[in-house]
Predict the 3D structure of the following.
Amino acid sequence: MSMYKPLIKIYSYLLSFFSSFCSEMAAKKDDFSVKKISPKLGGERGIRNPNGPTSSHDLVEQMEFLYVEVIKAINNSIVADTYNPIVEITLGNYKSSTKTLKLGPNMEWNQVFAFDKTKGDVLSVTLKDGRRENGTVIGKQNFKVAADIPFRVPPDARIAPQWYSMANMELMMSVWFGTQADEVYPRAWFSDASDVSASCVSNTRPKLYLAPRLCYVRVTIVSGHDLICNDVKRTPSVYVRATLGDVELYTELSLGSNPSWNQDLIFVASEPLDETVYITLFDKVNGQCIGLLEKKLSEMTAVKVPGSAPALFYDIEPPVKVEPAGDSRRFSSRIKMKLATDQAYHVFDECIQYSSDYRAFAKGLWPDLLGKLEIGILGATGLQPMKEWRDGRRSTDAYVVAKYGNKWARTRTVVGSFSPKWNEQYSWDVYDKCTTVTFGIFDNNQLAVVSSNNNLDGLIGKVRIPLTSLEWDRVYTCSCPILVLREDGLKKTGELQLAIRCLCVANPYVRATSPFRWMLPKAHYKSPMSMVQTEDLRWQAIRLNCLNLARAEPPLRKEVVLDMLRPTNKSFSMRITNANLERLRRAARMFNWCVWMKETVRSTTDFRPKIIACVASLVVVFGWWYWILCLAVWHVVPVYLAVISLLEIFRLSRREFNRLVLGVDARPPAPLVPVDLKLWGLDSPDLDELAEEFDTFPSSVVDVNVLRMRYDRLRREMGENVMLLLGDVASQCERLCALLSLLDSPLAWICFSLGCYAMVVLVYVFWDHVIFFQKFVFICFVVRWVNFQCFRNDLPSGISNFFRRLPTNEGPMF
């Protein structure tokens, strides 16, 4: 028995190793999946309220804060003395102060401070004289958290501030318990941000941003007339420059006094369309300006239907007054242009695959409102540290930006927490459900006075949720992984906890027809733009959004907007290429029944499946029960369909009644964003493939051996297969084109006419036996298709031989 002890130890060691490995892989797979959570939404403390929304914040957990509003102070001393009052508010270990706040002329602050009510038992408000370094205490007021402070829930009226005597001064303030539904929540100074200076505290507050709607501006330069250059003896060589904002576009060069261009120059402008387009004509020879023209966007033709604006002549002003010799009349060169604001288009500012809006600029072209998207941003867990201080301390000051349509929502910044809680709720209008909402989690680097433009807010990660995966009127509570793909593999930087609901407010007709209406406005189909042109204009739109949102207070910074709107990487990736091929294979598996039929009946040498197929065909075509079945179907099928429809309607009604009224949902929702790591090659990624994917173009790799290895891999795995596949597809298409070209020859038409004439004669002669003839042809086809061994011929048929001999462009002469 002792001789087996080492083997038993080895076996137990291997068993424990493999079990731990399998559990680790399962945990890793589960770590990257969307998890269902069960938060207490709407401030519940028990079973979720089944009677629908309880307030405007029914998709978030109720957070109770202790609000202290410090308004102003007055000096009641008879002796004239000048104070520099400072108010310090203390709850437990948290302290906030008005030291860095600007003091008004009447000693007012008008600032609201917010504390977590669970952090202490006594609230202490101290009034100090700030003229001295440590501050002399003037007076102090204490409040017992459990007994002295009232609770207020909107829509209750605001609690009136009171005067509190502190020695020879009085302080006006109000203290109450509230939630995030309180109207002072967006402008409160939270205790976790007490170390942030007053000039930077606005960067921590929640905010809603409404980006201006974007519109295309189309400047069509048609032609010029009577153009003259500074040298009147020379024919001008003219090109036109159009400028809108800081974007400049140029036409091609055209010669002569009456040049012609017929070229479109398209810009992106934002409402209210009050900018000016500057048209400048240049002479290519000396580079001098020969004409100027200014036109405001409000003066251009507003095109709200697919089409173009009328071509009009415009007088251009020369930089130097030029008149022909011997002519006293006013002379002016003219340019023919079409100036229009194309309001029938939708301006893309997002990647088309993840777009959140497809509406045109003109409101009259918007589709009917489909529903409301309500999102509760609950919190995050397991965030990675983003900054490291000199004392070795690491921290993250996280906030979330949600983007849908032209409405941006930014949560408050929770300072110094790796598991922040926001519990903020926002809503958007939904016009098309085939859209995507995007969340970005950022680290705030604008909390110090010395922060400059070089301190950019760092991106922690993004989460995208397609609305097509959501069912109407259902609440989804989930924890979405924040996944970031890097050169060292797929990393999870945390989890974002969300509560999402899509409410349908449209009538049944709009809801039923919404999947069948145009996804884009009509102008995109009548006068389409190329993908290259759309992408160039998209970058103009991104720049405009960055400028517009950066002017808000607090600003939504440029790097945040760029990260939210950044497109997917379009550079070559071996991983993505293999994933796309696998997607094609999976899609082709739906035709497996054809392969099964071919292998089971046609390709096999066993005659039994062939006999079964022929007998089944005979029974279907000539069987006596076939007619009885046909007669029965006319009465049975409609009744059967009606019964099934009524049962399904009753089942759906009962399920909706249980879910909406009783709060019982027997059918759990499908996961929002299933992550297929195996499909995209992220379960065990090749690090060199990821390095190649993140490499620049041209490549920044200096090692020749690495480049040679990547090149050989590309030739081996992709080059040969793609080259042969494309060659085969092109050859078959060329043979099909050659077959269609044979119809141009007279002999082909003669044969086709004779065949049609013979068919007509056969139908006329055997009209009484047409049905029998159809059955006979069908049975002959089945017998021939099952390919009995006596009829088997592995050689290609004559039709395939004829098709194979059709000419192609493969096989070059060299």
